[in-house]
Amino acid sequence: MRTNPHILEINTRAGLSRLEAKHGRRFVLHEIPDSYWRTFKNRGFDAVWLMGVWQQSPKAREIAQTHPDIQEAIKKIKPTYSIDDVIASPYAVYDYEPAQDLGGRESLRQLREKLNSMGILLFLDFVPNHLAIDNPMVNAAPDLFINTGTQEPHIHKDWFFQNKNGVWIAHGRDPYFAPWTDSAQLNYFNPSTKKFMLDNLLKVASMCDGVRCDMAMLTLNKVHRDTWWEFIGGNLPKEEFWSVALERVRQDHPDFVFIAEVYWGLEWEIQEMGFDYTYDKVLYDRLRFSTPQDIKGHLRAEHLFQMRSMRFTSNHDEEESLTAFGREISLAASTIIATLPGARMIYLFQLMGRQTRLPIQYIKDDFEEDFTIRDYYDKLLKIASKPVFHGGQWSLTDVQAAEDNSAGNILCWTWKQMNTAAIVFINYSDSPSKCRIKPQRLSTEHKTWHEEFSGQDVELNDEQIREGIEITLQPFESKIFTYTM
């Protein structure tokens, strides 16, 4: 996999539903046409994250089909939807076995083999914090979960449910939100739980090339203690689950890739435990809500942190980028994340121009593809796949003011690899903006800048080489120049 890889997230069942509608037949995983995957390979994707391949929870599906918030969210977009098109949450894992209706383990094996032969890695989900409410271990081994035995919880009774033997078991939760009622909370202060989940992780690692770990920070000892203090006490285990687990997996799979969904300023701590990439939600929020100066401030972080950050402007948890940012801003934001160091994650429905997010439990999403959006991403990904953006050295670049004071609106960075350079300009504002920049290491024999989006060449004169070239950008316009040094 390249440095600064491009990773495609696909909601597996929703993606299959669109394929089935197009071809008039159902597919299991290995039957997905080769041409489908070649399209993504040609777009420059290094890996595919198939979200939601594990065996579905019957109880979680029942909960999803009757949950008023899920029903209301679907009805806003699909007033006459079929309840049969509502499935269990992929994050209420019944068993870490590929679902039989997707073809089971053998179909997944064949798909992985096919993708690897094309130079594409296969990533899957790992959900460390909880399992489905009806996972067999809820009844067979309740001590793997946070529980109060057969005694009713003395507080927060609404956080718990009873298994078939009357044991009160906690639902999974994030400390800032209500519990996930389709889940059962694992107890990471129990060594047996850590072993059980490590065994599951090793099982998953045998079936793919990497995992995206859901809410990875919830299993950190201090976070786990603070979330469940009343039920597990305050004595921290000596070791962190992730430090042990990642080392153990890599004994069998040295090149295995670990991606962590992580927030709350814990990204660096998780990276130090061995994760290859951590979510960069801070950048996402600054792209949505802050100024170009705030974005530049974030990009001045330590270089290793930048290299291990995963950038995104959309995923299955966030509102669609066209709605969250607005059309023009979303494309500018995506140009930013596609040309920064670190992993660059793109959501399939983002590529297709979906306007409105539906709950991930609803799989029959038949929105019309926006071909203008698709074409922009095709061009952007082709540009961002150039070797300089993967093997080159990145640096944040300061621009100079032109004749007005608008240069502060412009984000700029440079990539250099041997005798090739690329310089990225993005006007991240709703006003026309100008800046001036002096070319570095531009030889007198090579005076041509090539603008990648337009395909136009700019011939620099001696004065521009000496004094600097003026760059003019319309609101939220991007220009990427490549040249020979």
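Above is the first protein from milestone M3; the second protein from the same milestone is given next.
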Amino acid sequence: MSYHILSPDAPSPLQNFQRSINRRQFFGKSATGIGTAALAGLLGSESGAASFPNEKAKAKRVIYLFQNGGPTHVDTFDYKPLLTKLHGTQLPSGYAEGKRFSTMTKDVSSKLVLNSLEPFARHGESGAWVSGLFPHTAKIADELCFIKSMHTDAVNHAPAISFMLSGAQIPGRPTLGAWLTYGLGVEGADLPGFVAMTSISKGTSCGQIFYDFYWGSGFLPSKYQGSKFRGMGDPVLYLKNPDGIDPKLRRGMLDDLAALNEIKYQTTGDPEIETRIAQYEMAYRMQTSVPDLTDFSDEPQHILDMYGPDVTEQGSYAYNCIMARRLIERGVRFVQCMHAGWDQHNSLTTELYNQCRDTDQASAALVTDLKMRGLLDDTLVIWGGEFGRTPFIQGDINNRPRWGRDHHPYAFTTWMAGGGVKPGITYGASDDLGFNVAENPVHVHDFQATILHLLGIDHEKLTYRFQGRQFRLTDVHGHVVKDILA
């Protein structure tokens, strides 16, 4: 099949507007109401200027379980016996030379090696190494594809998260979910194509902020940005009609508002006016779809139990995981669940345990639930953060309650499941201390290129012209990691 790509000579928004004026005048005079007609036109072109119907696509949708703060790979999935052997001794020479760390790490040469907190064991037929901190994830090891050779360019949280999600450390680029909804469109009409949810473990000292640009659309039309579902109260504000306003009156108000917006569009050709009309219409439909989405009364008790005791607590990680499954069942293309608190500079022996407790069961349950429903084959689940954490200690080796690890971009672990990746494999490897990549390096742009490939998109062809340049998620880099493809 052919790809439809924006060329360097792509028409401007105003030219597009001028070419479509007759169609819009027709919609404006439609007896069915201008709001409904305008929405029909928008949904018909929801896939944007770049459309990628690809028969080789393995995945249709993505659930990204993003672990903010940088999970420590050497305490979770990357087993390094040498850490135990060298625990408390000075970091051997040759590992850290020329490496850049956060300003919290000063003289790297004086740092002491810190062992893994809990024992590792092999699990499943694949024999994957998993820490005792993840007993539930260990049970689904044969469903997972571990990538243990991830590396990134950024050493601090916000730039590293932005890089992982948008391909650039500086905010302002479209995020992965925005690119996918732009390139592939959405499957349903009653919910946004891209939804973001956030959570944080109780009692954590983590001060990380969930910035809106983590699910932003950058220079893409804003209809492709992620819709943030809140962790308390109504998931989306202002969906309920005010007292005295019934659905019929609301429908009439939206039609009149769409007519006013159409007049403005005829004057300016501003594509954001189209977005405004689409947002009003989506909100109208979400008045019905969101209450149904958040009503768990149709969930069997054994399914709720599988996700853990926090599953019905709005704003918890477990709640967001089961919501992610319910969202993709209703046609949402990309669900981004972000859980903060993995930033353990001086709290490994306390807060790391909390993080694993709060996320392990629900993550495993989501994969299991999707497989039980026949959804895992075409749903790509991703678990991982923006970087790993250092194999050396941050703090005093003699003060165990305050042990910590600093940010570590040079080697870290991510896992994927479903959606066309090989189950039960480990790809790549770090060195014997988990410090540097030793085998089959996977850069962030390689990872992004592979995700797009699984959804039937050539990462070099999904582009958008902005300020005189063709932009893409992977910038000018990236190669598909073919060895992990099923």
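Note on the second protein: DSSP finds 13 helices and 17 strands in the chain.
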